[in-house]
Write a structure and sequence with these properties.
The chain is mainly alpha-helical. Among the domains are: 3-66; 94-237, P-loop containing nucleotide triphosphate hydrolases (Rossmann fold, 3-Layer(aba) Sandwich); 242-320. It has a five-stranded parallel beta sheet with strand order 2-3-4-1-5, with helices on both faces. A three-stranded antiparallel beta sheet has the order 8-10-9. Strands 6-7 form a two-stranded antiparallel sheet. A hairpin with a 2-residue loop joins strand 6 and strand 7.
Length: 782
């Protein structure tokens, strides 16, 4: 039986024995029992004898408990220490707490919780220790080892205090650390003791403080990965999830503060990056400033330059916590931490990190791995590294103190540019390019940023890249402004307009094109630049189905380009103009324009030849020459398949589908329209997706499948509404009006017809070909 349970039992049993013995002796020597018990008077002397034997047994039992077991010397613990500090509220760490409990209950005698500073590892360890107290009744010992400070607690000082807390005399509190550690292990060898060692510096500081017995357990927290402690169960923890972070913020801020301003609270959580220390500090500031809203504090944290200044409350500060860990590092790790820490983007590769540091890759790799062990750096993949946002801000501050940051960014820009010029485009660096360009403007490195944009742009190919291309050229506009380079700004605006158009954002496509044209005309020194801007404006008007405006701009651009002898650009403008004419059912105008484009084209196959053939095929079909139209569309399809142009192939499928419709081959037409839809969904072309669903709706209507037609029209309308294509939306409404009328839903049909006519205006309402979206180009020089 456990000693802590036996001792109380002996006390109770001994007291009961004393009472019964007194009664028995009294009766045996002439005393009288109450009336009901007098018949049992004869049992008095036998009971005295029995109780005497029990008394001897109790005395022997007590003696045995006080004696050591054979073969071992056990020190009696005169004191049962209970040193655990209060555990703070633990939020969002249920899985981690369960992991610690499972390790302890599974027999692990040493559990190490390793994590970055401020992640709440001490709170987790304290909660786990408090939960396990009842299983360790012989004492709970606690020591704050101050491993992150410049003066960590020596293990001998901890051992002296532990032995004193366990009641050892003063003469046992002297000696070397090895002797003190042996004495500590002897005292607790057969006891159930829990030891919590908080903020350990390294394994050497911890080894002497472990109880060692089979019935005890040690919990250790550290800001380093203590992987060289034999038999340890090592658990690592990271930042809180957004939901858990919000819950912790609400707990720290007090009742009602988060619910009163949920959007501001969300921004605070985002600024803290899920770091519990930062969340507790920010929440505490809200609690102390009852008049502040969460949004007001979030506004103060929005400025990265002052964010760490704001994350301070009393003696707690995120900056000092992080810098304490930095101060522990060696000179090499400090240099790499500072120089890598300001990297642009979400992560940095080893080669780029070495370029930033101006050091050999092997040296940088070793330093980064040591920083990973110190939880200042994460490694999401081999040779790839990243930092928590607040850690990165600390590194950036340290670098900026010596102007290292600008030099590192300059080297990083140069490395990215060299890789791009060599055609060695890494997918992992895509976002870093944009972030580097953005950072370069503020750092006075606009010229290297421009060089990077120009090197990367040729590598951003394919119609599916329009989103990235848009962001690249949007970042180029402030670069041009910082350089005072107006031609580069005009070029950037043209590409921004084109990218908006390819993304289907026609409402934004036109203003950017108009800005480019206005700037080019104001500059007035480059006629070709004016022509290219006019071309972009014409394409933007064409995307909105504005015939007169688009024709005027495109014809003026064509005139200037013919005068300059810019044949390649002339071909592109002719393709845009031919598409405009076909869309508005003017084949008599499109044929001469597109025929001349074919004459100017070289013999080799190209996307331009495919688009010209497709346009001529549409014109032939619109003019009633169906067989010739079929031949030209088939020829355009062949070009698209041979050169792998998916966008061209998608529109060839559309027009071939309508040729099938003319012959009543609805199954073949639907097959082509669905193949077209798959292509445009893959390319994320909103205009093409809308066209495909419209065509599928028309097929369903022709087959009398009215509910299916309404579904397809509804999807097309949602796409056109998202893109802001009012004319196309109006045309689909008119198609849907006819279906609703056929279904007898007259009131809905009338409403759709009225709105459709308002939106589509004078645009031709057609069911069939001439609805392609030929993408305009902003200029071949880019």
């Amino acid at each position: 039986m456990m000693r802590h349970r036996v001792v109380p039992l002996l006390v109770v049993t001994s007291g009961l024995f004393s009472v019964l013995l007194a009664v028995a002796v009294n009766v045996a020597t002439g005393g009288v029992l109450p009336g009901a018990l007098r018949p049992y008077t004869w049992m008095a002397w036998p009971l005295v004898g029995l109780l005497a034997v029990v008394g001897v047994g109790l005395g022997w039992w007590q003696q045995r408990l006080a004696e050591p077991q054979p073969g071992r010397a056990v020190a009696v613990l005169p004191h049962v220490p209970a040193e655990l500090p209060a555990a703070p509220a633990l939020v969002g760490r249920g899985a981690e707490l369960a992991a610690v409990r499972a390790a302890v209950e599974g027999g692990s005698q040493l559990v190490v919780i390793a994590a970055a500073p401020g992640t709440g590892k001490s709170a987790l360890a304290l909660r786990a220790a408090h939960d396990a107290r009842d299983s360790y009744p012989d004492g709970q010992l606690f020591a704050a080892l101050r491993g992150a400070s410049a003066d960590p607690v020596p293990p001998e000082a901890v051992l002296v205090r532990f032995l004193r807390a366990l009641g050892r005399p003063d003469d046992e509190l002297r000696g070397e650390v090895v002797e003190l550690a042996a004495r500590f292990r002897s005292v607790v060898a057969d006891r159930r003791v829990l030891v919590l060692l908080d903020d350990a510096r390294d394994a050497a500081q911890v080894r002497y403080l472990l109880p060692g017995g089979a019935h005890s357990v040690a919990l250790v927290t550290s800001r380093r990965l203590l992987s060289d402690l034999l038999g340890a169960s090592v658990l690592t923890i990271g930042a809180l999830t957004p939901g858990a972070a919000l819950e912790l913020l609400a707990t720290a801020a007090g009742p009602g503060r988060v619910s009163a301003d949920p959007e501001g609270a969300r921004r605070l959580v985002e600024a803290c990056g899920g770091l519990p220390l930062a969340l507790r500090i920010v929440g505490g500031r809200l609690r102390m400033r009852a008049q502040w809203s969460a949004s007001a504090l979030a506004d103060r944290l929005a400025d990265e330059g002052r964010r760490l200044d704001e994350m301070r409350l009393a003696d707690r500060a995120v900056r000092s916590t992080l810098r304490a860990v930095y101060d522990e590092l060696g000179p090499g790790e400090r240099l790499v931490f500072r120089r890598v820490g300001g990297y642009p983007g979400t992560s940095v590769g080893l080669a780029a990190a070495a370029a930033r540091c101006a050091l050999d890759e092997h040296v940088v790799a070793e330093a980064l791995e040591r920083l990973v062990d110190a939880f200042l750096v994460e490694s999401p993949a081999p040779d790839r590294y990243r930092m928590h946002d607040l850690v990165r801000l600390c590194a950036r501050e340290l670098a900026d103190d010596g102007a290292e940051g600008v030099d590192c960014l300059d080297r990083h820009l140069g490395w990215l540019t060299a890789r791009a010029r060599a055609g060695q485009w890494l997918a992992a660096e895509r976002e870093n390019v944009l972030a580097a360009v953005h950072a370069a403007v503020g750092a006075g490195l606009a010229a290297p940023a421009r060089a990077l944009i120009e090197a990367v742009h040729p590598l951003v190919t394919g119609e599916a890249e329009h989103s990235y291309r848009l962001r690249l050229w949007l970042s180029a506009v402030p670069v041009a402004q910082a350089l005072g380079d107006e031609p580069f700004r005009i070029r950037a605006l043209r590409w921004v307009s084109h990218s908006y158009g390819m993304a289907g954002l026609v409402r934004l496509e036109l203003p950017a094109a108009q800005q480019a044209l206005e700037a080019a005309e104001l500059l007035g020194t480059d006629v070709r630049e004016i022509a290219l801007a006019l071309w972009r404006v014409g394409d933007a008007w064409r995307a909105q189905d504005r015939f007169a405006e688009a024709q005027a701009a495109l014809l003026r651009a064509l005139e200037l380009l013919i005068g300059l002898g810019a044949v390649a650009d002339e071909i592109e403008v002719r393709l845009s103009l031919g598409t405009l004419y076909n869309t508005f059912l003017h084949p008599e105008l499109s044929v001469p324009v597109l025929s001349r484009a074919v004459e100017l084209l070289p013999e080799r196959e190209s996307p331009e030849r495919g688009w010209a053939l497709l346009g001529l095929g549409l014109a032939a079909e619109l003019g009633g020459r169906i067989e010739r139209g079929r031949e030209l569309v088939a020829e355009a399809m062949g070009v698209a398949e041979r050169i792998g142009d998916e966008l061209l192939r998608g529109y060839c499928l559309q027009e071939r589908g309508w040729l099938y419709v003319r012959h009543g081959a609805y199954d073949h037409a639907e097959r082509d329209f669905r193949a077209m839809l798959a292509i445009f969904e893959r390319l994320r072309s909103g205009h093409g997706i809308g066209s495909a669903h419209t065509a599928l709706g028309d097929i369903a209507d022709m087959r009398g499948q009215h509910p299916a037609a309404l579904r397809e029209y509804g999807t097309a309308m949602a796409e056109y509404e998202r893109l802001g294509l009012r004319v196309r939306l109006g045309q689909v409404l008119l198609h849907r009006s006819a279906v609703l009328r056929a279904m007898g839903r007259e009131q809905e049909a009338d409403a759709d017809r009225v709105r459709g006519e308002q939106l589509s205006g004078d645009a031709p309402v057609h069911r069939g070909p001439a609805v392609q979206r030929r993408p305009g180009r902003p200029g071949r020089e880019a």
